[in-house]
């Protein structure tokens, strides 16, 4: 064997060793066997899907500057700070973590958000869920309007034919007001019996207010979308919801999410199609948009949020 042949055999063995090591590495195994990387069974897949909401909010929807690092849909609203409890200095500047809209707030409206230009800019990505629709011309259809029949307050805006500039009929499409993640979508909604609904109203009368669990039923079939930290929209009294959408799915503004109906209303309970309208709520840091304002102020605020910065939906 010549020296040249020995060198040739040495390099051949060297390259073979390199190839063997690479083929046995986790990277190569992953490429050859997808089951190493995809979880391999349904339960894991479901778990991955369930965490998508958290991951997405952490990664994209929550600005890093908010300091919010974890989103927990079932986490109750934080209790008011105990003045006797020392708060670590580094915690003082952090905003409260996002929580679901809660009507169990401390008495008074001292914590109302400032409905100012900064807030309008914060919500400027929102647009009307019904293409071309304006803000209702009737005060009784605005957020903040009294609802004597259930001893409560209207927390959203109603879109009715004849009052918002465009026809709104039973079965008309409803679109996401902005990009976000489906937090709730009532695929399995069952309309209550009329008598059952009457009992809910009697309970509200006895309580002198509409208990949250009853108010939720009176909103009928619903879709909720979480948009950004502390901003959530609700679409209520729907006839149907988009069959393909599930909790955790991302939507863009203008995506179809359901159809106009009258679920949860007295006419819905009677089985008619009367009183069809969209009830639409915008929640900001646990307050409905316009809370505490007069009807003209509410109308102006909603117009600025939904109409001024929007060119309207494409559909
Ligand atoms: Zn309404």
Please report the first level of CATH classification, the CATH class of the domain at 117-308.
Mainly Beta
Shape: globular
Intertermini distance: 80 Å
Topology as a string of helices (H) and strands (E): HHHHHHEEEEEHHEEEEEHEEH
Helix content: 25-40%
Mind telling me which CATH architecture of the domain at 117-308 this is? Distorted Sandwich
What kind of sheet is the major sheet?
7 strands, antiparallel
CATH homologous superfamily identity of the domain at 117-308:
Glucose Permease (Domain IIA)
Radius of gyration: 27 Å
Percent of residues in beta strands: 15-25%
Secondary structure: number of strands: 12
CATH topology of the domain at 117-308: Glucose Permease (Domain IIA)
Explain this structure to me?
The chain has 315 residues and is an alpha+beta fold. The protein has 10 helices and 12 strands. Strands 3, 5, 6, 7, 9, 11 and 12 form a 7-stranded antiparallel beta sheet that branches. It is 31% helix and 15% strand. It has a domain at 117-308: Glucose Permease (Domain IIA) (Distorted Sandwich), CATH 2.70.70. 30% of the residues are buried. Mean pLDDT is 76; it is low at 17-97 and 310-315. The radius of gyration is 27 Å and the shape is globular. The structure holds zinc ion. Zinc ion is lined by residues 154, 156, 158, 279.
Give structural attributes.
seven-stranded antiparallel sheet, 12 strands, binds zinc ion, globular, 10 helices, three-stranded antiparallel sheet, 315 residues, Glucose Permease (Domain IIA), disordered C terminus
């Amino acid at each position: 064997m010549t020296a040249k042949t020995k060198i040739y055999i040495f390099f051949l063995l060297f390259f073979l060793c390199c190839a063997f090591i690479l083929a046995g590495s986790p990277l190569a195994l992953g490429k050859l066997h997808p089951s190493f990387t995809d979880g391999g069974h349904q339960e894991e897949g479901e778990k991955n899907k369930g965490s998508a909401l958290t991951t997405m909010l952490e990664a994209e929807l929550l600005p890093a500057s908010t300091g919010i690092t974890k989103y927990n849909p079932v986490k109750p609203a934080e209790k008011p700070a105990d003045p006797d409890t020392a708060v670590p200095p580094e915690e003082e500047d952090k905003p409260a973590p996002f929580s679901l809209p809660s009507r169990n707030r401390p008495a008074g409206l001292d914590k109302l958000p400032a409905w100012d230009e900064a807030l309008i800019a914060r919500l400027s990505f929102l647009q009307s869920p019904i293409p071309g629709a304006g803000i209702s011309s009737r005060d009784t259809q605005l957020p903040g309007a009294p609802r004597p029949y259930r001893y409560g307050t209207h927390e959203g805006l109603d879109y009715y034919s004849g009052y918002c500039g465009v026809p709104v009929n039973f079965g008309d499409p409803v679109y996401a007001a902005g990009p976000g993640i489906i937090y709730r979508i009532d695929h399995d909604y069952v309309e209550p019996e009329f008598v059952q609904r009457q009992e809910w109203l009697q309970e509200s009368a006895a309580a002198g207010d509409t208990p949250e669990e009853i108010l939720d039923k009176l909103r009928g079939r619903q879709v909720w979308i979480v948009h950004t930290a502390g901003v959530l929209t609700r679409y209520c009294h729907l006839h149907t919801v988009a069959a393909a959408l599930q909790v955790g799915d991302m939507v863009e503004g203008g995506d179809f999410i359901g159809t106009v109906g009258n679920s949860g209303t007295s006419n819905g309970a009677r089985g008619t199609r009367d009183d069809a309208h969209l009830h639409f709520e915008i929640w900001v840091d646990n307050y409905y948009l316009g809370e505490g304002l007069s009807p003209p102020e509410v109308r102006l605020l909603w117009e600025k949020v939904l109409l001024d910065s929007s060119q309207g939906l494409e559909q």
